[in-house]
Write a structure and sequence with these properties.
- Keywords: Hydrolase.
- Belongs to the glycosyl hydrolase 73 family.
- By secondary structure, this protein is mainly alpha-helical.
- The protein has a two-stranded antiparallel sheet with strand order 1-2.
- A hairpin with a 2-residue loop joins strand 1 and strand 2.
- The longest helix has 63 residues.
- The protein is elongated.
- 23% of the residues are buried.
Length: 214
């Protein structure tokens, strides 16, 4: 008994639709597939971009809030201690990393002020610039009840100087613009960072802190 031949479906399709139609259908399916891959592939990227953008907006808002919270205090202290508010704000920003450092968040020390009394200080790690490079040390830092107390102590330090030189920051107090004041701080050895003055100036310019000196 002879075997029945199986029908070849492919040949039937070719006969039914023709080669050009099948090629066109294949191209259309491939195109649709690419569109789907692109659409679904772009969604995660858009989500990541949106998240990064939102995070950046939050950071900028937090920084503006930090400035607005401290600016009135800095302006009030200027009348008593003659320290430009822009300098006070810029130093607080640099020294405390916008109020986010451990020293600032836990102990309200916005300026990296050191102390000697074990009762009113806390020992923490810090970095200082020595002999041409940065080194990590442990030092005793002053603890404050709130940020306002830290700002006032900072203003008093600049106004009254150090125990070994009461006039150490006199040129900072005499300065009428933030650039002169920043360079005076550098020359008075306020910080070990050799680029400290320029960093202050850059922050003041970037966030227009000079507007609070009026």
């Amino acid at each position: 008994m002879a075997k029945k031949r199986k029908k070849r479906r492919g040949r039937n399709l070719i006969k039914q639709f023709g080669v050009p139609q099948l090629i066109l259908a294949g191209i259309m399916l491939a195109f649709i597939g690419l569109l789907l891959v692109r659409c679904f592939g772009e969604q995660p990227r858009v989500a990541v971009d949106d998240t990064a953008s939102q995070q950046q907006e939050r950071v900028q808002q937090q920084r503006q809030d930090f400035i607005k919270r401290l600016a009135p205090v800095a302006q009030r202290l200027q009348h008593t201690y003659h320290v430009l508010p822009s300098i006070t704000l810029a130093q607080a920003i640099l020294e405390s990393d916008w109020g986010t450092s451990q020293l600032a968040t836990h102990y309200h020390n916005l300026f990296g002020v050191k102390g000697d009394d074990p009762v009113t200080t806390q020992v923490l790690k810090t970095k200082e610039y020595r002999d041409g490079h940065w080194v990590e040390i442990r030092a005793r830092f002053q603890v404050y009840q709130n940020d306002t107390a830290a700002l006032e102590a900072h203003a008093k330090l600049l106004a009254q100087g150090t125990s070994w030189n009461p006039n150490q920051y006199q040129h900072v107090l005499a300065a009428t613009d933030y650039k002169t004041a920043a360079n005076a701080l550098q020359q008075a050895d306020y910080a070990t960072d050799p680029t400290y003055a320029q960093k202050l100036i850059n922050v003041i310019k970037a966030y227009k802190l000079y507007q609070y000196d009026r």
